[in-house]
Amino acid sequence: MSKNKTNATSKDTCGNERARWTDDKDATWLKELNHQVHVLGKRSDSGFKKEAWNAALVKLNGEHRVSYNKDQLKARHNELIKQYSVVSSMLKTSGIGFDVSTCRFSCLDGSWSNFLEGQPESWAVWESKQFPNYLLCNELWGGTVATGEYASSSSAPRIQTMAISDPDDERPSLVEDDVVEDNIDDEQNDLREGKKRRLAPGGSKSVPRDRESLGSKFLAEIRGMKDSGEREVNALADVLRCIASPKISKSQEGAAKVLQRELEGILDDDDLLIGMDVLENPTKASCFLQLSGQLRKKWIVREIKKLQDS
Known about the structure:
Elements lengths: L22 H17 L3 E2 L2 E2 L1 H15 L5 H22 L4 E4 L4 E4 L4 H4 L18 H8 L32 H25 L15 H31 L5 H14 L5 H10 L3 H9 L2 H17 L1
Antiparallel strand pairs: 1-2, 3-4
Helix pairs in contact: 1-2, 1-5, 6-7, 8-10, 9-11
């Protein structure tokens, strides 16, 4: 028998082990990436930081005794994110839900054939195809996938902050600019008033006018600085009010109401309060609303237990 016979672990043209993906392998690296992003903050503007990829790859290779490389992991990541983008578009329409117990998408109103009329062909495969790692994908990419391409964004409200200049900055300050503008306005008003005063009562001959004193100029500058300072203080107060009271998304507010309405009396008060903590995550609040019936209850109970055990 030839010794060169291909074994169970085949190689590609570059000599790397061919990646044979399973749901368990996907779950391993998805969980690790979620940990890197949500616990350690390893997300970057273009996706994930190098440390996050390395940690996910080490976890995958260690737990499943494989020797995959980062390119293979990223290729699988891109494939899963395409699938997640498709099902996310489906779930944004009415009448579709995700069944946690079967890991399948189900029509809540009518049949699949009716639902698929006029919809993209890529949706049809999900009538029978399972997505066991949908919840992990939703936790990782929820709110970041819009059109099938990876786009990083934050679900938290954006707050516009004022730019605070460096004390050593040579550019004129806001106060100085406002004073100049106020002085110009005052000078223009004075010119108009001066022209009126210079006209003699009986003719067009001008009357000599005293020049503005140094004290008057100083008072005008003080007035301008005071008005400018008040505007800056008011603007800063508005920003601080926004920071002190962040906006709550509609999904978070709706999920909290549904939790209290449907599970009050079923869960004890402590579990309900922990459930509210779970729903502070906009992604989890959206997922909670997309589920229904017993699936919704099982899901929130599981999330509450995870938070209790952490």
